[in-house]
Amino acid sequence: xxxxxxxxxxxxxxxxxxxxxxxxxxxxxxxxxxxxxxxxxxxxxxxxxxxxxxxxxxxxxxxxx
Length: 65
Fold this sequence. Notes:
Layout: H1 3-13, H2 18-25, H3 29-36, H4 44-54, H5 58-61
Helix pairs in contact: 2-3
């Protein structure tokens, strides 16, 4: 499974909006949308923040676990 699908799935499993995630990471909602639509990828810093926010290991978040 590609990372964009995983990011969207984990966000939805946690019942979070793109707006909420963007606010928590101090980035734009459009950035979250771009990640979830495979238009760009989060950097390692944001991946670590997302893993904490979604309560999932970094390996699982990027599809390696």
